[in-house]
Specification:
single chain; 184 residues; alpha/beta; 4-stranded parallel beta sheet; 4 strands; 42% helix; globular
Length: 184
């Protein structure tokens, strides 16, 4: 299963999520007007990809420290001091320099105009795994496109929401957003 996901960011991996939602709706298990896609880190990417690549499927989306720009991810510096341009990125994520069309096609930040649902972005400013610029840029793109977005940046926390107070605030923000957009 791991290998099946190689080189499939925004492609088959995203299709699996969307197909699962469609099946739940078709089977009457999920209310199509109350489906919200929520995720953190890669899951945050999946939430943004869902909102941009399958805009009719979701009533809202929440991205916690999510990737929005695959080109930016490819050139990001990671905590151990190298760029992500290594075996992990090329084998697992399938991202390489020269794949600009593929990277652009699956980078949510470049498709903000496609969004049809409200989006909540949450990100720690001290994130060294997914730089906060991903959420900064996504917020800017959504605002420029006239979309409904709320962005909460946590100045003192990291990728993992290590601090108890910010984790509680983050979860409270998600709960309020869900209540406002899909009900209890």
């Amino acid at each position: 299963f791991t290998r099946a996901g190689y080189r499939q960011w925004g492609l088959k991996m995203q299709d699996d999520v969307s197909d699962g939602v469609r099946k739940l709706v078709a089977d009457g298990i999920a209310d199509p007007k109350r489906v919200c896609i929520v995720g953190a880190s890669y899951g945050g990417y999946a939430a943004l990809a869902g909102a941009t690549l399958s805009p009719d499927l979701y009533a809202c989306a929440v991205s916690v420290a999510g990737v929005s720009d695959l080109r930016m991810l490819l050139t990001s510096t990671v905590p151990w001091g190298t760029t992500f341009d290594n075996q992990f990125m090329t084998a697992r994520l399938g991202l390489r320099y020269g794949d600009e069309a593929r990277l652009d096609a699956t980078s949510p930040v470049l498709h903000a105009d496609q969004v049809r649902c409200p989006i909540l972005l949450l990100h720690g400013k001290k994130d060294t795994t997914v730089p906060v610029e991903h959420s900064n840029d996504m917020n800017t793109a959504l605002l420029r496109a006239g979309k409904s977005v709320k962005y909460v940046k946590f100045d003192s926390d990291d990728h993992y929401f290590t601090l108890e107070a910010t984790r509680i605030t983050m979860l409270t923000e998600v709960e309020s957003f869900l209540k406002a957009n899909i009900g209890n």
